[in-house]
Design goal:
The chain has one helix and ten strands. The protein has one helix at about 25-30; strands at about 5, 10, 20-25, 35-40, 45-50, 60, 70-75, 80-85, 90-100, 110-115. Strands 2-10-9-4-5-6 form a six-stranded mixed beta sheet, with no helix packed on it. Strands 1-3-8-7 form a four-stranded antiparallel beta sheet, with no helix packed on it. Strand 5 and strand 6 form a beta hairpin.
Length: about 120
């Protein structure tokens, strides 16, 4: 499994929650800080959360702080993004990738926040 695969998106009402998952090969994950990115229509892809290779240091974009939580399972080469208190502005396609030496982008997972 050489590519990144995102899952867990869907349609949710404002205030709701979703948990995204991203899996890939050990080669992609091992030793690299990883991030979740998102791209809304007409906008550039932007980093929303990152986690170091050990999983003990995280950063968030200001607009998701306190609402999103990134974590990783290094044993299974998965990173997660728990998204709470979702807002319509969070509507986007969400992707994962390394922070540097990025690999080919996966197809992403669509998150739509709407009533």
């Amino acid at each position: 499994q050489m590519q990144l695969e995102e899952s867990g998106g869907g349609l949710v009402q404002p205030g709701g929650s979703l948990r995204l998952s991203c899996s890939g090969s050990k080669r992609i994950f091992t030793g690299y800080p990883m991030g979740w990115y998102r791209q809304a229509p007409g906008n550039q892809r932007a980093l929303v959360a990152s986690i170091n290779n050990r999983g003990d240091s995280v950063t968030y974009a200001e607009y998701v702080k306190g609402r999103f939580n990134i974590s990783r399972d290094n044993a299974n080469n998965i990173i997660y993004l728990q998204m709470n208190s979702l807002e319509p502005v969070d509507t986007a396609v969400y992707y994962c990738n390394r922070l540097f030496a990025q690999q080919a982008w996966g197809r992403g997972t669509q998150v739509t926040v709407s009533s």
